[in-house]
Amino acid sequence: xxxxxxxxxxxxxxxxxxxxxxxxxxxxxxxxxxxxxxxxxxxxxxxxxxxxxxxxxxxxxxxxxxxxxxxxxxxxxxxxxxxxxxxxxxxxxxxxxxxxxxxxxxxxxxxxxxxxxxxxxxxxxxxxxxxxxxxxxxxxxxxxxxxxxxxxxxxxxxxxxxxxxxxxxxxxxxxxxxxxxxxxxxxxxxxxxxxxxxxxxxxxxxxxxxxxxxxxxxxxxxxxxxxxxxxxxxxxxxxxxxxxxxxxxxxxxxxxxxxxxxxxxxxxxxxxxxxxxxxxxxxxxxxxxxxxxxxxxxxxxxxxxxxxxxxxxxxxxxxxxxxxxxxxxxxxxxxxxxxxxxxxxxxxxxxxxxxxxxxxxxxxxxxxxxxxxxxxxxxxxxxxxxxxxxxxxxxxxxxxxxxxxxxxxxxxxxxxxxxxxxxxxxxxxxxxxxxxxxxxxxxxxxxxxxxxxxxxxxxxxxxxxxxxxxxxxxxxxxxxxxxxxxxxxxxxxxxxxxxxxxxxxxxxxxxxxxxxxxxxxxxxxxxxxxxxxxxxxxxxxxxxxxxxxxxxxxxxxxxxxxxxxxxxxxxxxxxx
Length: 576
Hints:
38% of the residues lie in helices and 26% in strands. It is an alpha+beta fold. It has a 5-stranded antiparallel beta sheet. A 5-stranded antiparallel beta sheet has the order 7-6-10-9-8, with helices on both faces.
C-alpha cells in the first residue's frame, strides 16, 4: 500500500467532510467517506459554481435530506487545487450562540415542535401570548393555544408540513393566557433538530393590526359608497310605490269578492321593500362567525330572485339556472350572501347602463389535488366587458374606473370569500360581457347547531319607548303575546319619572329619534344602572348603520317576526 492510499484512508476517518477540488473548473477529484452522502447533492444543486474559493471561509446550505448548514474552510494548494473542509454549523459553538441570540431577539414568534409539543419558544412569545416561556414549553400548540375555530384548519396544515410541504402564508389565530385572540401569519417547515430528530419549525408574524386596518378600510368603503347605494334604493323605492299605487287604482274598480288577490299583491310588494331595508341592514355587517352557519344556496336564490329583480329595475332581465340541484350547502347566512350578490349585480347594472340581461347559475367543482368540493356560483352579464389591461387590477383596494366609486367593493367581496376558504375567478371579453365565478366550500348537509331557535322570551321584562302610538301599541300587544312583561312609554322622560317603581328590565326597545331626550341618551342613562341591559333601537334612519352594530338595529318598516328574531338572538348570545 503506497503512501497516497494510506493518506486517503486516513482522511476517511476524519469526523468532517473533506473535498479536493480542481480550482479552474471546480471539478471534485476526491472526497472522503464523510463527504460521500453530500457529493451527489452538491453536484445536483451546482453548489460549487456559486462558491468563491478566494474567500477562506464560506457558508454552504445543502437540502439533503433536510436543510443543513455547513461552515467551510478553503485551502489553496499549489495554486491549482482547493482543499474544502466542511463541518456542520450546529457543531460550532460560536455559530450556535450567534443563531440562538438572533432567534431570541427576532420580533416574530419562533416555535420548535417535536411530537406535537413545543420544545422551544423564543422570547417574543411571552409578549404576544402572556405566558412565561416555561409555561409555553411542553404545551400542545394545536390543542392548547390555537383558537377553537381554527383547530381543524391547523390540523390539516400540520399534516401537510409533516408530509414534507413547506407551508407559507397560512393565517390562523392563537388564544393568549387571558382569552384574547391574536391573528398570525405562519410559515412552517419540517427539518431536524440538533440531535438529528425530526421537528417542525413554525415562524409567525402578528397581523392583528393589519386585520384591524382591513376592517377600517371596510368601514371607509361603507361610508364612501353609502350615499350612492341609497340613490339607487330611492329609485327602487319609487318603483315599488308606483306599483302599489297602480294596485290601489285597480281596487277602486274591483268587486269586493275579488279584492283578496290584489291585497295580497300589495302586501307582497310592501314586504319587498322591507326586504330591501333588510339588505341595507345586512350591508353594514361584517363576516364574523360566518363559519358557524350553513346556507342552502338553491333555496337562497329562489327566495331572493324577486328582490334582486326589483333592485335591478324593469330594464334588466335576470335569469336563474339552478341546474338539477335540490340543495347546495355552503358557509354563510342570507344577510352575507345578499351583500355579496348586491355588489356583483350593482356592478353589472352600472356596466350595462341599466339595460340588458344577467344570468345566475349554480354548479359544483371538485379539486382532486386537495380533495375539496366547491359550490360554484356564476354571475354573467352582457355588458361591455373589462379591458385586458384593467382585468388584473379589479380586486385591488381603491382601484376603480368609476368617477364616484371607492374602489373597495370587489376588494372586500374577494376578501370575504377568501375568509370562507373560497376564491373568485373572472372571465371577460370586451364587447361581449363578464362572468364572475365564486367558489365556496360545498357541504353535504346543513350544520346542526343550537342557536336562537327555542330561546324563550317568556317572563322577560322589556321597556318599550316609541313616540308613534300605532307602532308602540302593536309592539306591546305582540310582545305580551310572547309572555313578555312590557312597560311602554311615548317619551324617555315618562319612563324616567316612573323608573323607581318598575321592575329592572332585561331589554329595551327604543326609538332613536324621540322628542326630548334621544334614544341613545336614555340607553346611556339606563346602562349606568343596568350594565347588562340588552338594547334594540328602532329607527327609519338607515344611516345609523355606520355607527350602531347591525344586531342592535331594526329599520322601519319591519316585520314582527324580525323583532322576535332580534330579541331571541340578543338573549341567546347572552346565554351562549
